[in-house]
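agent: user wants the full assembly modeled, not chains individually. Plan: 1) parse entity lines 2) check alphabet per entity 3) run joint structure prediction 4) return tokens. Steps 1-2 passed, two entities, 872 residues total. Proceeding.
--- entities ---
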Amino acid sequence: MSTFKSVRGMRDFMPDEAKAMRFIEAKTRKIAELYGYGEIITPVVESYELLAAKAGEEVRLRMYAFKDLGERMVALRPEFTPSVARLVATTLRNEPRPFRLFCVGSLYRYDEPQQGRYREFWQSNFELMGSNKPEADAEIIMLTNSLMEAVGLKKYALKVGHVGVLRGIFNQEKLNEKATNQVMQLMDKKEYDDALQMVKEAGASKKCLETLQKLVGLKGDRVFDIAEKMGETVEGYEQSVAAVENLMAILRLVSESECKVNMRLDAGFARGLEYYTGIILEIYIPELDIAIGGGGRYDKLIELFGGESTPAVGIAHGIERIMLAMQKQNVPLQTEEKKNVMVVPTKDELKGEALKIAQMLRDANVAVEVEVMGRKIAKALEDANRRKVDYAVIVGERELKEDAVMLRDLLKREQNVVKIAKMVEKIKGSPKIVGT
Amino acid sequence: MSTFKSVRGMRDFMPDEAKAMRFIEAKTRKIAELYGYGEIITPVVESYELLAAKAGEEVRLRMYAFKDLGERMVALRPEFTPSVARLVATTLRNEPRPFRLFCVGSLYRYDEPQQGRYREFWQSNFELMGSNKPEADAEIIMLTNSLMEAVGLKKYALKVGHVGVLRGIFNQEKLNEKATNQVMQLMDKKEYDDALQMVKEAGASKKCLETLQKLVGLKGDRVFDIAEKMGETVEGYEQSVAAVENLMAILRLVSESECKVNMRLDAGFARGLEYYTGIILEIYIPELDIAIGGGGRYDKLIELFGGESTPAVGIAHGIERIMLAMQKQNVPLQTEEKKNVMVVPTKDELKGEALKIAQMLRDANVAVEVEVMGRKIAKALEDANRRKVDYAVIVGERELKEDAVMLRDLLKREQNVVKIAKMVEKIKGSPKIVGT
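--- prediction returned ---
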């Protein structure tokens, strides 16, 4: 046994898993196209300075950071947003808004490995930049719903919150930014008692504490009712009232678009990343307690990267987590069932003919492997059976003299001499029987 | 202007470039399917030990190597083969041969950046493992030809050599492995005089020097003639004679398969990597002096990684280099020309309707962006024109009352009121005029 292993937390995808990954990737690319998002491919290795600039401590301390051979401090990207922000602040600086940008690829964080969490993980990432309007937020919700539908996930819920509601209260109560972020992080972890305690210690008013207490209890899938109650609860906090109005406008647009997304509003919902400023989103399925995607609005971020002020909203979907969700919900991959064929020559002198016939089949869009192990026919067919190959094409001298081959249906265990000119038709004509 | 930059040698792909990359990637995946190669996805981060084990010094010293937060010595993969070898020696250890494995992804080497050479670069990689037969080598050549045809590259040549011919001579002359590898590296760089000098200093016979001298001059596209001359030239070197026979068998199979590949045999051709044992291959186009792909047979490698003895042959294709080759030869991307549409509401109250209509179009497989900037119609249409959008769907109150919208052909500058039920048909019906 080899002593070489993969690195802890890093994962191999074998062919069936890779197929599922690429299926989801293809669907995200299709959705990107339908919504007008252009794909960009940015490097895995970025400057440490860029990646650390706006990362919260939790992310920053878990980056794969190192010096390259030119003594540059670099790191493996832990998220896509800094790279996208870099492009918006540089290459795209003078291009007219809006930008609809899409990326898909691997990200790296030194987290403790567990179910659905690896140190190398894959995401698709959508960002709509340049608009501060509620229709932009609504689009991100619709797009997420389209993606979930496209991969076949039906039972899922979109958890919705609005960072502006909480931030509005803290601003008016004059909590400093650090305390605000700490409180938000505690709320993200649902440690509400500790959060309230911290707010209290920071000198907030009694009204503030009561308001927060009420907000934390407001959640559920009757989103308009809850949003209305949120509005009543934050009365007197001007920015929070505006935030609830923004939230309401987004919810109304999603509803009017007739998007069938199952939303769950949670007034006490906060997300760890410090850069959110408006709506925040997370995708859940009942069978998993980790989010399979998340995002929100971040209107200040691009400026912080040195770009022009550019309001933005975005969402990332975890590809392995969608894979896991599909497994949990027994969602089949909707891939084309294709016939596959093994071509076997009956003797060494016919190997060239076998290769030629294989190529004819491939030209007709049939997947073919040629016997390359020098095995006897019976052995080769045994192997083909084991690997669920549909047909064997046996290339023998006698048949070749009549421009024919022996076509063996490996499922039915029948074989017939077939003219080479009719071979493709015979193979492609019969519908594939799945699951027998 | 932002001070954040991408890291030297690392590259961004903007939407048009990303489209070309993904087109090539999709074609390699299609070829993999047609030839029965299963995709595997292995991590970018592997143990340094694994990646350094069989890498030549040139690669080893240019790896992105570092300690992770758990003090493990790791590196970013500079090639795919060690990861594939790791899987064959572990996860796949007990699976019956042959393995046909395919990967595509990014690799990392700290090389001096230049045209077609980046520090992060993309390859597709095909490996056929378990067979030492010439039909396996022929398959790799046919597959490469299929890929070149699939992306649309017609003018290309496959440079072919055979490491076994040279190694056979050095073995019989009792050159040690280190000297052999050094000579091969000099030959790889076409520094033939230095190579011969080194062979001479190592105490080789006069016959050996004469044989090498003659071999180095044998090259061209009449591959059978040249192979025959190679056979005559190496007479007396038993292993070399066998190597020429192997080469001849491969060439014969490729010819019999009627594969139209343009091959160029070069008896003095060597490749830098030390692990090759048989045929070696490189893909060139006349417009570029760097190879756009390369590979060969490596029968000893899997054992060296602790796996069972597994003969293997493989090839890697540089995705950016294929992109560059397509540009140089003006090969167009064969992508589906799709209509795209911008949906614009005439007033704020109709934003929800606009979102709904956008979704109807997407459900009919039309790419749609919705106006999200709150611009006046004229401004939005100006932007749509600039970005070569085909149609605008203007959602106005008067038309909506009649279940209709205003459909504007942005190319023809014509607009008509169209029933919503007929909208998709109107948009998809007219063939897209390209290049006007």
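agent: reporting back. The domain at 15-328 of chain A is CATH 3.30.930.10 (BirA Bifunctional Protein; domain 2). Chain A has a mean pLDDT of 93.
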